[in-house]
């Protein structure tokens, strides 16, 4: 089972669900490709007024599917292909989507999860949700454009703490940082998200699309300048040890 990204349409609203049972909806390579294709399709739907993205089974997304990593991460070209042609292409499809996107965040929102959430216009979370990008434990860095995206969304201080100290933070901290619009009691989250999405669908759709185009233009970054040298660490001992330790369920020896 490599996971899926499912889309359900209800009137002028669409629900996108990340689904990877048993892995807290960790993103597989197939899921990144599906994220891109689904958002590209949704972007062409002129009748659509709001998209809600969420995870299945009480988690948003726990990160990447690390079980796949040994097959491609230790060679520079295949690592670059993964991040630029699969991960970033999926995230860019979300960023380019002209329809307002609301994130419904429960449980784990880690690594790939916080990147996906950072592409959303409005984020609401359950009070028990946890946020971070503890990839320092795996011996590798966040790709340049992904790091720039997260830094803009969560703020410089939290982004550095997540990446340099592998810190995990609660919903209240992310609310205080301005990443979340609301941090709600867990049982209130679905209704609050639906109410907010419904409010968006009642407003002028053309104005929403114009506002999204403005935000996208303002948030363009120069992180792409770092891409040519970003993946030279592919065959490094730390990279190999971090992933091997995770898969063996032991502490890494850096």
Quick structural overview:
The chain has helices at 29-43, 76-96, 112-118, 144-154, 156-164, 171-176, 189-201, 205-218, 237-247; strands at residues 4-10, 13-19, 50-55, 101-105, 108-110, 122-126, 130-132, 168-170, 182-184. The protein is an alpha/beta fold and 254 residues long.
Helices and strands in order:
Blueprint: E1 4-10, E2 13-19, H1 29-43, E3 50-55, H2 76-96, E4 101-105, E5 108-110, H3 112-118, E6 122-126, E7 130-132, H4 144-154, H5 156-164, E8 168-170, H6 171-176, E9 182-184, H7 189-201, H8 205-218, H9 237-247
Shape by Cα distribution: globular
- β-strand number: 9
Q: Report strand order across the widest sheet.
A: 1-2-3-4-6-9
- CATH architecture title: Alpha-Beta Complex
**SSE order:** EEHEHEEHEEHHEHEHHH
Mind telling me the C-alpha Rg? 18 Å
Helical stretch count? 9
Report the top-level CATH class.
Alpha Beta
The low-confidence parts are: none
Count of the domains: 1
CATH topology: 2-enoyl-CoA Hydratase, Chain A, domain 1
Average pLDDT for all residues: 94
What class, by secondary structure content? alpha/beta
Describe the biggest sheet?
6 strands, mixed
- CATH homologous superfamily assignment: 2-enoyl-CoA Hydratase, Chain A, domain 1
Roughly how much helix do the residues carry, as a percent range?
Answer: 40-55%
Q: How much of the residues is beta strand, in percent? A: 15-25%
Instruction: Give the distance, in angstroms, between the N- and C-terminal Cα atoms.
Output: 32 Å
